[in-house]
Specification:
Layout: H1 28-35, H2 63-68, H3 72-75, E1 80-90, E2 99-109, E3 114-119, E4 131-136, E5 156-159, E6 162-169, H4 171-179, H5 194-200, H6 209-218, H7 227-233, E7 237-244, E8 247-254, E9 259-264, E10 279-282, E11 312-314, E12 319-325, H8 327-336, H9 368-376, H10 387-392, E13 397-404, E14 415-421, E15 426-431, E16 442-448, E17 451-452, E18 458-459, E19 470-473, E20 476-483, H11 485-494
Antiparallel strand pairs: 1-2, 1-6, 2-3, 3-4, 5-6, 7-8, 7-12, 8-9, 9-10, 11-12, 13-14, 13-20, 14-15, 15-16, 17-18, 19-20
Length: 496
């Protein structure tokens, strides 16, 4: 027998089988599976776009054909089929939804007929998603292995008691199945998922008229039937003066929504508790009764045309006698109903003259403003500040150079810096440094408000300052010598 292989090489064996793929020692479990036909020795798959030659088992094959031969673990390595499927999952613990459509991606590995399943992620689904089934072999109910010919678009497969329907596959999977004589059908439509529909569909806004009416009535108003009435009569209120059991009341009728409120007139030292409202703003029925179950409430309410002078207005079985009204109400009835309504109705009780407050002289404790506030009020409060003046004149300081009006030799050369704060009209005096004078420089007068003894003890203002003028500040007589450039410019612009 002639052979193309060299026969003089060490290790050459005539009975070598070139079609053998694995030289590993097989286990007893492997041999058992092989004897039962669960393991195929050779997979003759036709890969799309490739011509895979069939190996010849004889020893007389051509060397080139043996060179082109690839075993299964090389030919089918990294060859994966991808199918798309779904199954319906029931939800029994929620009232808003009954089930979900779970989308799956099935990966079929040709090298060892294993399957892995991944759950497609959906945002805000509330379900743990990702890996659904670890890669492994899946067996059918009859014990046979689940293989790719069992995957058909539109068909169902059973995977651990879950019925998965295949609805699509990728292009490589379709080409592979076509090369092996399996024709996959067209893509099928997915059923409607109530969760996805709820997440993608904008809810229609439904007006809750019942809640709206309830809130309107709870806030003291009735339902405005006409927007024109509300816009034309907003903030227009009719005022009536009435009496009930010897007490005085004011009745307000709101033209915007035809509601009524009743207020009691309170006087000082009357001995009665001051209630703000006797009747909260609401529609006033002409005849009051408590409806029984199944009966409707009052439907006939008071209107502005029903109120007349000196009539008795019944408010929940309480008679109120109308005595008069104010000027606006009288003009309203004269213009709209040609009805003369009397003005007034009852006079205010005589008010006692308030006693005059005698302000004692300033005792020197604290500021004069604080002491004055303690005299005017029972509870002492800080004096009110002019915040507008403070904000406009904040950090505006006028500075003057001054000396003492004295003939004492040790005080003739002393110089002082007088600062006037425009924000609050306060004055501060600093003594400037004078070498070898024996007098320390620094603060001479604390920042405060001082009175001008030459102007009826009124507080100093900026108009009292003038270059070349003498002034007395806290018993000290100063003569203003000069001012800085900012002060001169400000005085020229504001005090002409």
């Amino acid at each position: 027998m002639n052979s193309i292989y060299p026969t003089n090489l060490p290790g050459f064996v005539y009975y070598h089988d070139p079609t053998k793929q694995s030289y590993k020692k097989s286990s007893m479990a492997y041999q058992d599976r092989k004897n039962h036909g669960e393991i195929e020795e050779q997979k003759s798959y036709s890969l799309p776009g490739l011509q895979t030659p069939s190996p010849d088992s004889t020893l007389n094959q051509n060397f080139e054909n043996a060179k082109e031969y690839e075993p299964d673990y090389v030919k089918l390595d990294k060859k994966v089929l991808r199918y798309y499927g779904y199954f319906k999952e029931s939800i029994v613990e929620k009232e808003l939804e009954s089930g979900r459509i779970r989308l799956l991606v099935l990966y079929y590995y040709l090298i060892d007929d294993t399957i892995s399943i991944v759950d497609t992620r959906q945002e805000n689904s509330g379900i743990p998603q990702g890996g659904f089934l670890v890669r492994g072999r899946i067996y059918k109910d009859d014990g046979s292995l689940l293989r790719f010919p069992d995957f058909k678009i539109g068909g169902d497969i059973m995977i651990y008691s879950k019925v998965v329907r295949i609805y699509d596959a990728d292009k490589y999977t379709r080409d592979f199945c076509a090369a092996n004589g399996i024709i996959l059908g067209p893509k099928q439509d997915l059923p409607e998922d109530p969760f996805i529909k709820k997440m993608t569909t904008k809810p229609k806004l439904v007006k809750d008229n019942i809640m709206k009416e309830y809130l309107e009535y709870s806030m003291g108003g009735g339902k405005v039937k006409s927007a024109k009435q509300f816009l034309e009569n907003d903030r227009k209120v009719l005022r009536y003066y009435a009496k009930f059991e010897g007490l005085k009341y004011i009745i307000h009728y709101y033209l915007s929504d035809d509601t009524v409120e009743i207020r009691e007139v309170n006087y000082n030292n009357s001995g009665r508790d001051p209630f703000p409202l006797l009747l909260t703003r609401n529609k006033l029925p002409k005849k009051f009764f408590i409806p029984q179950p199944g009966e409707e409430g009052p439907t006939d309410f008071y209107k502005d045309s029903d109120i007349e002078p000196f009539m008795t207005l019944w408010a929940f079985n309480r008679p109120f006698q109308i005595l008069g009204c104010d000027e606006f109400t009288a003009d309203y009835y004269l213009k709209n109903y040609k009805r003369n309504f009397p003005l007034g109705g009852f006079e205010d009780p005589p008010q006692k003259e308030k006693g005059r407050i005698v302000i004692p002289p300033y005792n020197g404790f604290g500021s004069e403003e604080d002491s004055l506030g303690n005299c005017l009020r029972l509870v002492n409060q800080p004096p009110k500040k002019d915040y507008y003046k403070y904000i406009d004149n904040d950090k505006l300081i006028l500075r003057f150079l001054a000396r003492l009006n004295t003939k004492e030799l040790e005080d003739v050369d002393r110089r002082f810096l007088i600062s006037f704060f425009l924000a609050d009209d306060t004055i501060q005096v600093y003594e400037m440094k004078n070498r070898n004078s024996g007098i320390w420089e620094g603060k001479f007068l604390e920042r405060s408000k001082y009175k001008n003894v030459e102007n009826d003890m009124k507080q100093f203002t900026i108009s009292d300052f003038e270059i070349g003028k003498s002034m007395i500040i806290n018993t000290f007589s100063f003569y203003v010598i000069d001012a800085d450039e900012f002060t001169k410019k400000w005085l020229a612009e504001n005090l002409r």
